[in-house]
Amino acid sequence: MSSSPSVSREVRLAARPDGLPGPEHFTIAETPLPEPGAGEVLVRNRFFHVAAALRTLIGGAEGMPLPPVNPGDPLPAATVGEVVAAPAGGELRPGDLVSHWLGWREYAAVPAEACVPLGDALPDPVAHLSQGATAYTALVTDARLRPGDTVFVTGGAGAVGSMAGQIARLLGAGRVIGSTGSADKAERLVAELGYDAVVVRGAGPVGEQLAKLAPDGVDVLLDNVGGEQLRAAVAAARPGARFVLVGALSGQLAPDGNGGTAPVELDTFPFIIKRIEMRGVSNPGDPATRAEWPARFGEWLRAGQITFPRVELAGIESAPAALPEVIGGRHLGTVVVRL
């Protein structure tokens, strides 16, 4: 504790945005270094994930897995940090790397039971912020991906999508198609991230593009977007297709509303005729499948069979602009702030 600073900085919501957030909706505040209470550990945060879904929490939507973020509150995020101080007799020790959800701040007092020890399963601690576990669980358990399946991943350049194409390929998919918002990202998805072809939003009707890229139809949908892209997948679905809804960015990132709804009109008749299965999933998903992910991810990383696409922004000063950049689609992969 003697080598720790006396203050810590954190990013707070300054005002609830009327629409999409900008840097002006956040402020960096100095606070006294947190004093861990009974059963808490003091963690120096090293990295935290900037997730587009945070827009839903700061928009005030109710019924979400995490509570809303109100003006004056620090923001939550998946975080990797180093234990600075821990209760005597506990399982955690100073120097241990852990993951937790009190991100967007330099130091955090975290209940010991809310810290997950990271160990050495992955060669780089920042890789624990990959959203690959979500994609892996959705493809293995929920979509029951089979060798030879044609897979369509919407939002292929996002945190989940940039992992899902690679994972689907490693699991034996016969053809992997993604969607994204620019030709530049589409080129990278094909060149670097396991995709065979990409639907580019704005380059023509999504349904027509998908029909050309998957002339024999789609067996599996991993949907991060919803909206027009979900409708296109219904039209392209093969008999017995399995749809897994992971995100709803068409609504979460809409300029109007609070990010808590994503309405879409679907023709239900194809669901009956084609026997399409559709299910929504949210973290943590199937515990057994998720538990096997770190070892499998580490093996693939060390063998050079998979990458963790990310953009690292330096310092907490970069954080207020980071979320608007993510929402605006500026980056490919997971966006991480390195402290």
Automatic annotation (TrEMBL):
<dbReference type="Pfam" id="PF00107">
    <property type="entry name" value="ADH_zinc_N"/>
</dbReference>
<dbReference type="InterPro" id="IPR041694">
    <property type="entry name" value="ADH_N_2"/>
</dbReference>
<dbReference type="GO" id="GO:0016491">
    <property type="term" value="F:oxidoreductase activity"/>
</dbReference>
<protein>
    <submittedName>
        <fullName>NADP-dependent oxidoreductase</fullName>
    </submittedName>
</protein>
<dbReference type="InterPro" id="IPR051397">
    <property type="entry name" value="Zn-ADH-like_protein"/>
</dbReference>
<dbReference type="InterPro" id="IPR011032">
    <property type="entry name" value="GroES-like_sf"/>
</dbReference>
<dbReference type="InterPro" id="IPR036291">
    <property type="entry name" value="NAD(P)-bd_dom_sf"/>
</dbReference>
<dbReference type="InterPro" id="IPR020843">
    <property type="entry name" value="ER"/>
</dbReference>
<feature type="region of interest" description="Disordered">
    <location>
        <begin position="1"/>
        <end position="24"/>
    </location>
</feature>
<dbReference type="InterPro" id="IPR013149">
    <property type="entry name" value="ADH-like_C"/>
</dbReference>
<feature type="domain" description="Enoyl reductase (ER)">
    <location>
        <begin position="22"/>
        <end position="337"/>
    </location>
</feature>
<dbReference type="Pfam" id="PF16884">
    <property type="entry name" value="ADH_N_2"/>
</dbReference>
